[in-house]
Design brief:
The protein has one domain (about 5-10, about 40-65, about 80-90, about 115-310): 3-Layer(aba) Sandwich (UDP-N-acetylmuramoyl-L-alanine:D-glutamate ligase). Helices cover about 30% and strands about 25% of the residues. It is built from 10 helices and 13 strands. The chain has a 9-stranded mixed β-sheet with strand order 5-4-1-8-9-10-11-12-13, with helices on both faces. Helix 1 (about 40-50) packs across helix 8.
Amino acid sequence: MSDVISLGILVADVVAKPIKQWPEEGQLILVDQFELHTGGCAMNTAVALSRLGLSAGIIGKVGQDAFGDYLVAALQREGVDTAGIRRQEGVNTSASMVCVTPSGERSFIHYLGANAELGAEDVDFDIVERAKVLHVGAALLIPKLDGAPLAGVLKRAQELGVTTVLDTAWDGRGRWMEAVGPCLPYTDYCVPSYEEARMLTGERDPAAIARVFLAAGVKYVGIKLGEKGCYVRSAHEEYHLPPYQVEAVDATGAGDSWVAGFITGIVTGRSLVETARLGNAVGAMSVTAMGASNGIRSLAETEEFMRQTPVREG
């Protein structure tokens, strides 16, 4: 049994830093670091959950290739249960080229690969049923699952008594609420980034954004605000929590790490405000090292970080 099952995308991230400018056609630029890391919202969150001390499993799809071998082996080294991963012939594992600026911001060149083949038929509900939480990583980047199929998965999970957490990604195809809307009545916690939430709802104020999600059936909303922290709301509570002060090295996977901290708060029975504060802490720790998960530490170390690290005022 796993505390949390992460359903969604698995990606091999090739990270280059610093990218000060894009090379002109036919030219070459040099970087100081060029590394291979695990990535993808479901994978990042599952690894972070395991490092925080929760038992985590993952449901996703990779190819029969070297990147697929690398991702499965990396998950197993982190203690994540890979029984839910499907290997598919004829398609390569998803990969991203992550271009990190000197300030730590990043841009992506992404190949959907095997993630594009992940469908509802790949979800093993025997695995889901034994979990406390089903987390969906990167809704809007799973074309065969987005929309009604994912709504059916979330509905079934709730019927099994499993808490559902829905995270989103940027939708380059512009479907937004058309794809996410059917899922919201079966979502206990919706945790998008601010920019994604703004596009989904058409609202700019976090409180107004949250009201749209709550009206659609979501029980709790957590909006990741990046360097401004986070905003969380339920029908009876709302909080805007500032971020912790850290020196950012690489923001890759920071949102996924925030979600891992938030889910850890849910599983460990913390209040909404303490759950959000833990999300901020894990997200902050993640940006202090290259790669999506290298900055994540144990729950005890994270709690010590929270005691010792000031929050950014104003």
